Amino acid sequence: MKKIIMLLFVFVLMYSCKTEKKNANQEVTLDSIDTTTVREHLYTLASDEMEGRGTGTPGIEKAAQYIEGEFKRIGLTTYDTLKDYRQTFVFTNRRTKKEITAFNIIGVLEGKSRKDEYVVISGHYDHLGIRKKEGQLDSIYNGANDDASGVTGVLTLAEYFKKKGSNERTIIFIAFTGEEMGLLGSRHFGKDVDASKFVAGINLEMMGKTPTTGPKTAWLTGFDRSDFGKIIQKNLEGTGYHLYPDPYVKQNLFFRSDNASLARLGIPSHTFSTTPIDVDKDYHQASDEAETLDVSVITETIKAVAKGTESIIDGTDTPTRVQLTDAEMGRKKK
Fold this sequence. Notes:
Radius of gyration: 21 Å
CATH architecture: 3-Layer(aba) Sandwich
Order of helices and strands: HHHEEEEEHEHEEHEHEHH
Low-confidence stretches: 9-13, 15-25
Structural class: alpha/beta
Strand content: 15-25%
Distance between the termini: 90 Å
Largest sheet: 8 strands, mixed
CATH superfamily: Zn peptidases
Number of strands: 10
CATH class: Alpha Beta
């Protein structure tokens, strides 16, 4: 009887090992990016519990802990010399004159053959917090589209690329803070980086609504400033998904999101978006709730970003550097 039990144990162990090996070698496809995961991240980050994620508030602390927990679960490492996922800095609120402690949340997926070449995937996790207005019942500005949708993309892509394991270049996943207060988090991050090592910046912003270009499309800011967008278009050929240049050129959106802080260093850093902002009634309103968004739009866009940036992340393509004027880079003419 003991021999039979021992044989059964050995058989189960061998079968388990074979199954684990098979699963480990199983190719990770875009189908692993699903609406269930996207919905969970979106509704958590845009919940009333997060109190609008105002920079320096208890609500954004809850959001930070959630993002940190996901980075840890996924298996990302910490950035540079940081002891944890927080890159902390202090700034003075211009309106209240009070000092505020803020933090970017950063996780790293080290590359293989080109680990000293970096690709940033980012979105800002702050929003407008709680604002009481006369006659307005809802005072929590949840910021579902702006930018819980983008941070949802960051978390989902972190898990996707970690499982896929094909990144020859190192990917730095960042949830920036203080975007709504003047790109404070991304400006702080860009202060001490060696820009020559940064190959690309992939920023995700307001991805929850169908753009004017139609279903399965997105638009990219600063399209003509590098060949980043053309690389994405090439990689998306045959997928049925299309990327277009930013249709709102007069609104100067290239410099209004966190990609700008890296672009000013010459890094080809651009923002993906889907929202028709010229007619979006929920922008910076308390009505920017998760229920107003289309989870399938966010999911399809995340898949498109994964597919479109694949050749940059695996080292096949290197985008040209961003071209800016002295004024755009904040330099004075000599």
